[in-house]
Amino acid sequence: MLAIVISHPHLVGRAIDLRFIPSLETTALMLRDGLLLRHTPDGAELWCDAAQAAAAQCVVVLPLVFQVFTRNARLESCTHWLVARPLRYVCAAGEAQMQPETLAGSGASRRPLLTVEIDHRPAPYGACALYRIALAEKRPH
Questions:
Q1: CA 83 to chain centre
Q2: Residue-level pLDDT, tens digit, the chain, 141 residues
Q3: How far apart, in whole angstroms, are the C-alpha atoms of residue 109 and residue 116?
Q4: How far is CA 75 from the centre of its chain?
Q5: Which residues pair with 97 in a beta bridge?
Q6: Which of 24, 17, 6 is nearest to 100 (CA)?
Q7: Positive or negative: CA dihedral 114, 133, 74, 13
Q8: Which residues contact 107 (CB under 8 A, 6 or more apart)?
Q9: Measured between alpha carbons, how far is 102 from 105 in angstroms, rounded to an integer?
Q10: Would you kindly state where each structural domain of the chain is located, as residue ranges?
């Protein structure tokens, strides 16, 4: 159904070690629609069976929210954050490359590495949608 891929130039070819935790609303949607979250070395995938994929095409938008955590301490220290943390990545309409927005000053927790918010529109015939987040490498001064 969909894949979220996070890339980082410092960690090319190595697992980034991320965990995507769905919000309560996303968890309820996943349970209702029989969706399965699968972690990958560079992100996560959301799966459904063919019958559910056909039913999901009737839905205009699936609002999905994930908090992303990491146990890789190097990831936080070697990343140049484009906006102040905590941050979220939001999928703009029709765009696969997700853009960062700051949550600073919003009272949001600083515990997650980032938050991903997607208004997913199911692709025809069960095709997989790909959402990309490109993290930037911190450069030495």
A1: 17
A2: 899 998 888 766 666 788 999 999 999 999 988 899 999 988 999 998 765 555 555 556 888 999 888 877 777 778 877 766 656 666 655 556 666 665 555 444 446 788 898 888 877 766 788 888 888 888 765
A3: 14
A4: 16
A5: 132
A6: 6
A7: positive
A8: none
A9: 9
A10: 2-137
